[in-house]
């Protein structure tokens, strides 16, 4: 691994910064949204109110000793951070902790009637059922007659820009989606990705999914296309084992998305039936590893997950949060080489991400200078720029 100097870990302790606004504004908005969209009983509403007070002004209070994942969270740093302000621990950690505590408040893990009920399901379903999704699926028919290579490129870009549709992000950046009408890639290594996905392919693609709905649908379309055209032999789709970051995809969301596709007309329906068959015969496998909801960077991944990625021809890592975990949630100088910070990854890795937080690596000096000249630092968090970075 090239010798990469380290950089300061991002905390949320500075008012006026993006991480601080996530803890001080976005998390309270998410609690209010959850409280309003499902008819939770008095106990759950009290717990949500207590969480609101704790996450904005209180300290980290460990999970109850009988929580199923108490031991896991201890190894992930819970004891070390107990008693400290949410703002004073790594931002990556406190955000992840927020979602775990939210699930506790709504009895997601508690035996009883609310066990396994996704608090974010109403917003995920609304997005999947929206006319915008219909339009995107209908547009596939125009693509169907094009040369295969052109289709593959279009689907890769669909998967990349699908990351702009992020329900949690919309709570605090209304309008970002519309503002980004012109795709603006700040780094594009896609020419190094295609040889890893070249026909006749027998290799495995690992795709580490991010959001459900309008991101997961194009991710699945890309996988369906690569399988159907023999560019890969098999795909492994990593999803979250439980609801996370509002819109992150779980197995239930994959099932919803595949059913949505199979019910569609034309090319979308064909892709849907291909995915259904691939799930049934094992060419498309799902993983929901606990580490996918961990508050730690991928550099600290456990051995079984490492082995999964090591066996892939390439691992494609989707979205902003996965990028933060891939390169480390640090204030890297933007020109820090991507290959250096991902040198630990056990095989070729590609990041497909729209930029929604401060972390960035691998920019050419001229690109950084042009972005700063045009936008100050807004390009880092506005969701209007994207990147494709590859380390072979
Ligand atoms: O991973 P995703 O869905 O692309 O984005 C997740 C996100 O919306 O949440 C975090 C702030 O809460 C940021 O990392 C990012 O803006």
What would you say this structure looks like, in words?
This protein is of the alpha/beta class. The protein folds into two domains: 18-116, no CATH class; 122-391, 3-Layer(aba) Sandwich (Rossmann fold). It contains 19 helices and seven strands. Helix 13 (216-228) links the parallel strand 2 and strand 3. Helix 1 (18-37) runs parallel beside helix 5 (91-105) and helix 2 (42-57) packs antiparallel against helix 5 (91-105). The longest helix is centred in the first third of the chain and has 20 residues, at 18-37. The chain is globular. The two termini are 12 Å apart. Bound molecules: 1-O-phosphono-beta-D-fructofuranose (F1X). 1-O-phosphono-beta-D-fructofuranose (F1X) is lined by residues 22, 26, 95, 163, 166, 168-169, 210-211, 245, 319-321, 324, 356-357.
Question: What key attributes describe this structure?
Answer:
392 residues, alpha/beta, Rossmann fold, 2 domains, seven-stranded mixed β-sheet, 7 strands, 9% strand, globular, binds 1-O-phosphono-beta-D-fructofuranose
CATH structural fold name of the largest domain: Rossmann fold
Tally of individual helices: 19
Q: How helix-rich are the residues, as a percent range?
A: 40-55%
- Order of secondary-structure elements: HHHHHHHHHHHEHEHEHHEHEHHEHE
**Could you say what the CATH architecture of the largest domain is?**
3-Layer(aba) Sandwich
CATH superfamily of the largest domain: Uncharacterised protein PF01937, DUF89, domain 3
Strand content: 5-15%
Main sheet summary: 7 strands, mixed
Mean pLDDT: 93
Structural class: alpha/beta
Whole-number count of domains: 2
Distance between the termini: 12 Å
Low-confidence stretches: 167-183
Morphology: globular
Q: Any idea what the radius of gyration is? A: 20 Å
Q: Give the beta-strand count.
A: 7
Lateral arrangement of strands in the main beta sheet: 1-7-6-5-2-3-4
Domain Damage-control phosphatase ARMT1-like metal-binding: 23-366
Catalytic activity: beta-D-fructose 1-phosphate + H2O = D-fructose + phosphate; beta-D-fructose 6-phosphate = dihydroxyacetone + D-glyceraldehyde 3-phosphate
Pfam family, one: ARMT1-like_dom
GO molecular function, one term: phosphatase activity
């Amino acid at each position: 691994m090239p010798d990469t100097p380290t950089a300061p870990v991002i905390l949320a302790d500075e008012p006026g910064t993006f991480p601080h606004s996530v803890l001080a504004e976005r998390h309270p908005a998410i609690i209010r949204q959850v409280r309003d969209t499902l008819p939770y009983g008095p106990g759950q509403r009290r717990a949500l109110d207590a969480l609101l007070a704790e996450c904005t002004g209180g300290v980290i209070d460990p999970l109850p000793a009988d929580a199923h994942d108490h031991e896991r969270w201890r190894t992930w740093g819970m004891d070390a951070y107990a008693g400290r302000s949410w703002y004073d621990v790594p931002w990556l950690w406190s955000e992840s902790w927020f979602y775990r505590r939210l699930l506790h408040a709504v009895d997601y893990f508690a035996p009883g009637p609310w066990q396994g009920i996704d608090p974010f399901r109403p917003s995920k379903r609304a997005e999947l059922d929206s006319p915008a999704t219909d339009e995107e699926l209908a547009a596939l028919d125009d693509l169907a007659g094009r040369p295969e290579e052109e289709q593959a490129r279009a689907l890769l870009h669909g998967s990349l820009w699908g990351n702009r549709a992020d329900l949690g992000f919309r709570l605090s950046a209304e309008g970002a989606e519309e503002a980004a009408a012109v795709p603006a890639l700040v780094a594009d290594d896609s020419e190094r990705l295609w040889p890893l996905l070249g026909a006749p392919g027998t290799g495995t693609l690992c795709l580490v999914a991010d959001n459900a709905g309008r991101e997961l649908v194009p991710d699945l379309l890309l996988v369906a296309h690569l399988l159907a055209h023999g560019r890969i032999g098999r795909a492994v789709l990593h999803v979250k084992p439980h609801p996370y970051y509002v819109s992150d995809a779980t197995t239930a969301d994959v099932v919803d998305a595949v059913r949505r596709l199979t019910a569609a007309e034309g090319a979308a329906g064909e892709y849907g039936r291909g995915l259904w068959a691939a799930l049934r015969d094992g060419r498309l496998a799902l993983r929901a590893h606990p580490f996918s909801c961990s508050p730690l960077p991928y550099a600290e991944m456990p051995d079984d997950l490492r082995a999964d990625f090591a066996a892939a021809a390439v691992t494609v890592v989707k979205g902003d949060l996965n990028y933060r975990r891939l390169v480390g949630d640090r204030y890297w100088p933007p020109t820090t080489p991507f290959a250096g910070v991902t040198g630990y990854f056990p095989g070729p890795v590609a990041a497909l991400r729209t930029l929604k937080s401060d972390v960035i690596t691998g920019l050419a000096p001229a690109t950084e200078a042009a972005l700063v000249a045009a936008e100050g630092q807004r390009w880092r968090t506005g969701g209007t720029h994207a990147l494709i970075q590859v380390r072979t």
